[in-house]
Each structure stands twice: as C-alpha cells, then as structure tokens.
Task: structure prediction
Amino acid sequence: MSRYLNFIAEKNQVKYLIITIAFIIFSFFWIYPLLWVLSASFKTDFEIWGGLGLIPDRLVWENFERAWFGANMGRYFFNTLIITVVSVIIVVVTTGMFGYVIGRYSFPGKKILIGILIGTIFIPQGYTIIPVFDLLNNLNISKNLIGLTLATAGHTPVIYILLFAGYFSRVPVELEEAAKMDGAGFVRTFISIMLPLTKPVVATVSILQVLHAWNDFLLPVVITLGNPDIRTLSVGVYAFKGEYFVDWSGMAAASVITILPIIILFLFMQKYFVEGVQGAVKG
Amino acid sequence: MNKKSLSKQIYDARWCYVFVLPCLILTGMFVIYPIGMSWYFSLLDWSGFTKEAKFIGLQNYYEAVNDQFFWDAFIRSFIFMFGTVPVKIVLGFIIAVFLNNQVLKLAPFFRTVIFMPVVTAIAIIGIVMTFVFSPFNGPANKFLMSTNLTSAPIDFLGNPDTVLPTVMGVYVWKWLGITMMYWLAALQTVPQDVYDAAKIDGAEGYRLWIHIILPIVLPFAIVIILVEAVGALNVFPLIETMTAGGPFFSSEVMEIYIFRTAFVTDSGTMPRLGYACAAGVFWGVAVLFITVLQGLWMRRTRRI
Result:
C-alpha cells in the first residue's frame, strides 16, 4: 500500500496552485534539452542556430535520411538491436537460473558463490575493459557482434540475481511439492512451475538490461575501435560528430534515432523501470 | 535428521550447480578473469597491439605515482564525486518529498519528466550538451543573453574554469531521476500512522522532518549515498563525449586518463596498455577502499 504525507492540504488552493505552477516551469526547463534536439532533428542547420523556438518551419525529413543511410545509422541501429535482444535473453536465462537456486536451495558452496558476486558489485567497468578487449581478441570474436554481445551480457549486475532470488524465495513450497508428486524433475519444475510465476521479475530485469545494453558506451567504443561495421548507435553518433562535424541537423536526427526507442519503451513500461531502479536500495 | 555426508549433499544438489554454471562462466570470463589479468598486465611494458611484452615489475606503478597528470585526474575524480553527490541527495530528497503528495494531481507526470534523462543514452546526452552549451548561439547562451543575465556568450566547455562545473551540472541533471526514485522508495516505508500521530502531536514543518521522518529514512540514506558515490566515479561516457578531458586536461578524470593512456594516439603518444592497467589497478584499489570504508560505516550506523 502506498503511503503519503499530504502536507499540501486540499483546502489550501493557493499553495497547491503555486507548487503546481512551479513544477510545470521546472519540468519545462528540465526537459528542454531533449525537446531541443528533437526539434533540431527536423530543422535546417540555419534554423537550429536561429532561435530558441521549438516548432520547425517545416519538417525536414532529409535529416533522417542522411543519418540513416549516409552516416550508416541504419546499420548501427540493427547492430544495437541484435546486441540488446540477445544479451537480454542471455541475462534473463542465466541470472534467472542462478537466482532460482540461490533463492530456494541450500547447497555446499552457496555462501562462497554469494560472496564472489557481492565482491563484483563495485568493480567499475573501466577497471576490466582492457583485459576484456584482449580476451575477445584472443578468442577471435572481437571483430563480429558475438564478442560484443557476450561481453555486454557478461557484466551482469548482481541486482538482477538478487531480484530473482528474492522473488523465488517467496513462492510457497506447496507448489513445488505438488510438482514433485506429479513426477516433475528439477528442470521441469523450474520451467513449467516456477518460471511462469516470475513474469514481473523477468520484465523488470529485461527492461534494466535493455537500458544497459542499448545505452552502453565504454565497452562498444573500445571493442569497435578498429571495426566500424559493428558499431552501436551511441558509438555511431560519437563517430558522426568526429567525421561530419558541421552537419548539426543530421547529428540531431542520429541522436533522435538513438534515444527515441528507449524513451517510448520507458513511457509504456514505466512501472518496471521504477521497480528495477528502486530494487537497488530496497534490497 | 542425521547429517548427510558432504559428497551426498553435493550429489543431491547437482542440479543447483548446473543452474549456477552459465552465469558463473559469464561472470568468470568478463569480470573475474579481467580483474586478475589487469593485475598481471600492469606489470608489463606492453602496447597492447603487438605480442611483444616485457615484464618490468612495479615500474608502471612507480611511473604513475610520479605523473602529475595521474594525480590531477585522481583528485578531479573525487572533486567530481564530492561536488555532485550531495547536490543529488538533497535535491532528489526535496523533489521526492513534493512528489510524494497524493494531492498533487500532476505528480506522476512530473516524475516521468524528471526521470526522462535517465533513460536517454549517456553518450547522446554528452554530444547534445556540446551544442546546448556552445558559445556560438547555443541555446544556453541564447537564453542567458536574451534574459540579460550575461552580456557576452560564455564558453562553458572551452574555459578550464567553467568546464568541470558544467559537466557536473549535466551529470546531476542526467541522473537526478534515479536519486528521486530512491528517495520515493524510502519515503514509502514511513508508516502512515507515524504521519498521523505526528500530525496529532502538532509536529509540523521542519520539526516533523528532522525529528520523525529523517531517522526513519536514514538507513536508506546511507545506501543511497554509497550507490551514488560509486556511480559518480564512473563518468567516462559523459566526459569523453562532452569534452574528452579537455580543454588542456582540465576535465580529465581517472577513467579518461586510463582510456587516453591505453588507446588514444591523437597526441602522438604510443598506446600503453600495461601502464594504463597499472593506473587502473591503483584506481580500482582506491575505489574499493572507499567502498569498504563506507560499507563498514553503513553497518555500524544500521546497528545503532
């Protein structure tokens, strides 16, 4: 149940109105940079630097054409999509399995495993990037999407496992016993009884991983240094800035191509974003 | 029930081991192995792009601690942390307190807007902000000049004095939504009767906050500070895309320094993976030390 402290009394209309208006003004300034780049992506270069107004004179769709084909953002879009989707599947399956046994069973070595995981929480990505780069080179998967996808899935935040473990530990034991009576083994119990129950956690973990994989920068920028073909969107826009420095409107369009899918996803699935983020402090 | 032998226990739990294996392999490959290897690499004189590597012991470390750029970047990382974390904690708390009001009809909308930058790709934010803060008709300068707050455009990212505060401001803007969500979660744990009882007792305004609500949310505050502090040390994408550490290294934090010494060859210097690893290890140990210190402090405070 939600709890609220309503220190703005309903009868105090003036106070209520002042706070609401203050927040509306604040929100406008807050969101202005994002609205600005969205509007710039439909403007001509000349118009972008002309004024602060957000409504373009006419919609210049050619900006998107230049970005998608000329700057190769189309290719980068699908690279990013593949990396994101595959890494989400890998992460959900592996952390789901891990969380399941951690949350429901005790077995020799469990404490050590948890200790190892906790130890990796605060390892910054920058700390491991060079050996990861070297490892992918040695495995000969640094020049295609396989390496980048695996590495994206590999730096699994421990929070996913904790979310799964917490959820699985609350499933009543009776369900499992009933499955056992029916002769279901360990794997079948997991797949047909347990997994369907955890849809909310699967959704939350998937969303968090989408956010991570789609927006990641350090790993892809290092891995794709010598391979422009496997760049992701973020790296693509960064390279765009270096190569076509004067094409502001094209770069704005490329930026919009990168950020819009996630913003739309966020608007529709806000609940899971919030749950995932709050899971970090609730646990 | 009598205790089973260890081998029997392990055999009974065989499926548990199978289930932890995939995740363990990935973590082993991409987290644990790299940590071990970076310690080893840090002892080598190695460019990273050839097979030639020479074992030179602690010489890389010796060089790092004698490099002024290293210490400048090291200190700058902490300036970044101490400059952003308190602002985020306080501002996030104030916003959360307002948005935790049921009466405020537009609260869900405001929450969405404030959270929006969080889901936006960090590299894109960095690039877009170089336009927003451009001295040549950038929107920030346009706004300041049209409202007569300044008479001449400010070169936010080109001036060594303003670049770090500007990047820090963008960082706070980008991630404040998360801090707000943390605080909202914390405020939700305050029992309703505490509010009600406080109201009956006539505790209002700041007294209600300081004496009743703050003690309840304090354990959360400690976790939030810990998470935020570590987060503020991981700012590579934002700074790399906004300034790449410039101008004249004035926004170069540790991660940028490591990246520059490892890969970037623009300055004509050779990439030196071994040296960069030594800097990284030094940095990683420093961060770990702070984390452990905070963790101990957290446990002590929670016990009280």
